[in-house]
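To illustrate this point, what follows is a protein record of this kind.

___
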Amino acid sequence: MLQGTALGDLRTEGRADVAVEVRDGRFTAVDLALKSVAFEDKGRRFAVFGVDGNLPWRGDELASARLRVKGGEVLHVPFGAFDLPLEMRGIRVRTHEVQIPVLDGRITVTDFATSGEGEGWRWRFQGGVTPVSMEQFTTALGLPVMHGTLAAVIPAVSYQQSTLKVNGALLFKVFDGAIVAQNLVLETPFGKVPRLTADVEMRSLDLDLLTRTFSFGNITGRLDATVKGLELVNWTPVRFDARVESSAGEYPRRISQAAVQNISALGGAGAGAAIQRSFLRFFKEFGYSALGLSCKLENGVCLMGGIEDVPQGYVIVKGGGIPAIRVLGYNRNVGWHELIERLKRVTQDNVTPIVK
């Protein structure tokens, strides 16, 4: 039953006792007792430890159960102990509210319900995430440490015919701004090659929080981003139309020399900071009036642009203040893997800019 799904390669331990009642060729009652049961995906995508409790299932009667879970992890993010109260009638299962500790925050799942008649197995729920430290979250995922908190409102989520849908806007509060995901659909989430599609908007993210711990360099200001038609296959981007740009409004806009060098490197061979050579050695940071970069990914190639076009290419950073600075990009078509390699290089190495 589980072969070919994300549950098809499990390591299990513990004890399970089961008593089954069969009448007229059909199951009428099942009593399942779990003692220190644990299961872990060998690929370390998820794990659950220390499950205890009794499940008294009755075919035509309402039955209540409560399981106790000591902890586990999903994609290396650990969660703590929680109680799971269940109401069961036939193949219907419901729980009104479950609170799961995650790092220094909590995930709340409300109105979870399953059924299996008609068009097959399906379930739904809604919930939210109380603030979780981004430092702890990114460390658990093995990502560069980021600052701030992560919080979310989860609207109605449903699953049917191997497809998970978010019926509404999924809202995250992160980096002192907001991220909204809409039209989110995840096909075969428990299969070997899941496919996700969505539209994402990010508003007023704090650039200082984003860049503070990267060797990319420091940028102060606010950032907006729009990602339309995002498509991931096995969690790898294959298509999207994305644009990031500085937010409207009044706020400090400063960019460090290291960030200027690395943004220049993203533009490809020949990209450079348009700044007088004599000024470069005297200033560690500069002012800017606007910055932006766009990428339309299709067939493995990114069509790139900036905040405006110029005869030589496109503007990524537009100067503001003294000294005046401008960062240009020259390559319009860049292979997706090459762009990822550039991002890796500029966050790991000290790239020397071309100065005009």
Q: What stands out?
A: The first strand starts at residue 10 and ends at 23.
